[in-house]
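User: For a benchmark we're assembling, each entry needs the component sequences followed by a predicted structure for the full assembly. Here are entry 17's components. Please fill in the structure.
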Amino acid sequence: MKRFRSVVILLFAFALIVAACSDDEGDSGEATTTTAGESTETTAAASLEGTAVTVFGPESSDNEAGAMQDALNIFAEANGMTITYTGARDFSDQINAQAAGGNPPDIAVFPQPGKVIDFGTQGFILPIPAELVDFSRPQWPGGTLETVSALDEVWALPNKTDLKSVVWYNSQIFADGGYTVPTTLDDLWALSTQMIADGVTPWCVGIESGPATGWAFTDWMEDVTLRLQGPDFYDQWVANEVTFDDERVQEIGQTIIDIWNTPGNTFAAGGTIAATPFGDNGEPLANGDCAMHRQASFFAAFFPEGTTVGPGQQIDTFYFPSADDTRPVLTAGTYVSAFRDAPEVWAVMQYLTSAEYSTERQRAQAARVGGGANSGYLSANLQQDLSVYNDLEKFFVETLQNADPARFDASDLMPAAVGAGSFWTEGTSAVNGDKTVADAFAAIQASWPSS
Amino acid sequence: MDGLFDNRLVITIVGVVAALGISAIVFVGANRLFDLAPRKWSIFSALIGGGSALAFFGLLWGNRLINQPVTTTIVATIIGAAAGYALSLTSDPRLHLGIGALAGAVLGGLIGATLKTSTRPEFDPVALVVGVVVGLAIGFGIWAVRGRTASVTRVALFWGALGWVFGAFLVPDLGGGDQAWAVIAATIGGALFGAWVGTFPNPDANARREIALGSRKYIFLTPALAFIAMTLIIPLIRTGFLSLQSGPPVDLSFTGLTNYADIFTDPTILNLENWTNMFTSQLFWAGVVVLIIGIVVARISGQRTGEGFGINGGSLSALAFGVILLGFAFFAVMRGTISNNLWWIFAVTLFSTGAGLAVAVLADRSRGETIAKSFIFMPMAISFVGAGIIWRFMYIARPETKEQTGVLNSIWVQIGKWSASNTASIIIALILAVIVAGILYIGWTGRQARRSSVVAGAIVAALPLIWLIYRFLGPGIGGVEIVDGVAVASPIFFLTESPFNNFWMMVVFIWIQTGFAMVIFSAAIKGVPADLTEAAGIDGASESQVFWRITVPSIAPTIGVVTTTLIVTVLKVFDIPKVMTNGNFDTQVLANEMWQRAFTELDFGLGSALAFILFLGVLPVMWINIRRMQRQREAVR
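Assistant: Structure for entry 17:
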């Protein structure tokens, strides 16, 4: 009798495990039965009653993921539906495994347009219906949708924007040393040199980021390339028409690494640049271990509690200056793509790219941060309500709007094998001195997919 | 939200119960079916015919290869059953052949007619001819080897049919052909198979009984075989197949062994060009010196006992230490994923086995044995990921101006500060000198008691301490650099400084696995018969002689098991490098490389090839293990 009972328990446990594993399949099975025709007609709120949509993305901190969920809840409650957001730090690995394994989320928030296009051309995600493209296009700056277009289809809708060409600085150090905010790239390098001479460490640099270690270096590469070689060169570089073993590209890498390795130039909280988590640069900057840190607009969230950030505050920002009188801006951001063809999925997609979402998300995120501090969220949506942003954030939005020209983060546009692979890893080797820039960049070029 | 989960759970439980029920019914049904064979051959034959057709069309259906699967499968099942019944009614061989061929042709035609457009093959006459010829050649080859007893027609029909199907469906491109050819090809293939079935005459009463009896073992084996096939064999074959393909996941194309060629020509995976640097490394020459010492000691002690080569603690530990130094010298200059993996296997296996054995022996029957062993075993309870994170904290390095927060670096820098300060270094040198004096005194008493092992142990223990005294008083030691007369901290970058960052990660693995080795060895040592060791003691053997000449030979099989288990575990190491460096700074290992290629870069072909190489690497070790188990079983018999 005892044995019989244990068999029953085992069977029940097995049933539970299978249940846990199998529900996703049920979803995708249903998904394939709905046809594309049905979905586009039904956007009326009533039809969303009782439906459920899952959203998966890279934003995983309490503030970001929480605000994302808050903003989604507003839409979900208005329509009597359920939207669940899940965030994972290693999103890029996870989404590959999920898509290839056949259990993707309904909507994924991609930080990399290159990946969107990979997924689109490989048939994992659905092309965006024309109505939604027409809805999104006038709301976002020109070129936003072109970044995620391939094979005559648009594969994703813009969801948020990050401004990358930002230098954060410790205003106390600037005041004490009598330093002024540089307006050209040469001024910036001269300022670094001056600071080293004064015994001030100018830069905090750290490029460690778990499986994505190295991306902070690629950001520097992109910002400097955009300034020294111009947008056309940048586009050719993204398309691999200018190769990584090109002298001009190598020279930029070498310039950056030489500046970083100049004695007295760099404070790395983890001992070496390659071992310092990118997020660990906020504390030393606030403490005065270094004077400046170049990082995207979202970095406001990485300062220790009690640090005031904004114009005239403890931590202030300036635009990463250009070499001439243009005002190039490096941007990044997230795009949403759909894996499941259903009316509720498209309705949520539409909401995620809308001005309402931008406003609600900023409102929720600012409320979570509290006290009018920087939320870390930013959107280039042209129709959003700017009153929900604080002064610093308005400066960011302004910088985005006055961009001349704007370029999306190159590594996010390159094929995943490079942009989320060798550019990071080989760049890290070069920064760490394990390889010469020439060797590392030749290896990046060798890994560029041949087709 | 509410109701949804319950609903799914209920559906799944019902599904699982139904699946189990159906499996049970199939199992019982199969037994009942073969019960029929001796008594009601016609019904049996019809059921077998229908069942085979159902299974085959079910496979096509399950793989989404045919249109209108429901109707087609039902029709096919009926045709199969009818053919089976018809075959059982007649014993005329020609009629038999005809019925079989006809039914096969009809079923084949059915497949051809319903085959989805995307799976219709192109007409490729060369492939067809080659397929049939090769099929027949193989068939008759086997036939000749087997003594030419089987019927020629039967061999020709079966292998011809196989060759035909291969040439018509598997070699050409799918999706481009027209329906007519699909019908023709499938009809001919089906007819050949059907005719082959038709060549078998109806069995007589004896043969029927044999079928009924002979079927049982297969019925009982099938569930287990199916499980192994689903979880092991099919994935293995699929991985092997994928490893021969390249391209994005949805558009893979067959490229032969290019993935393997890419792996072995990629300098980040295998880079042999620096191996000569080994000869300029201090490690290498230190290793050579220690090895020579080991050999000399072995010779000397061997002469004393009248053997050519003395096996004892002194000589063996010197030899092992020399081998370790040489190995490290070798792996430190070899770069690339594969050499990293080999270094892992070399270092972790040696250190874990050695340390585990040492602890097991030293703790055996001593006071506090359980507590000591519990502490050493405890890391086994920590996951590799958790251990990796813990050790990342241990290894933290901070800039020279900051307080070191990593345990190891703060110790290292503190030692450096002591060494840099005159008073502290003299005090420490004095303390060390007292300890050395104590050790040497123990050695002196050992010499008077004529116990050479105590003397050797004392000298071995004293030497590094004397070296420490020298460093403290002389050139200095620890994580401090003198810059312009001021002592500045100089921490070790454990995880970013190649090549020894590899070893610092191996330490984590050794930390975990030593407990495992210790527990197994401890059990084995306790299993060594006490009368053997006691007898040796009465004969005047020293502790060390008892260990090397009785304990070690007795537990040799256990050492083998522990070593092979460790090799297999280490070869697959993934979590620790993933968490600690993610393969950056020259610390890539095969498993993480596989993950990155397959899931970060979505290159399933290359990822599968790496997985397959890992599998091939594990295979010989597994084989050795299994062979030994078999030998032991034979020995018991």
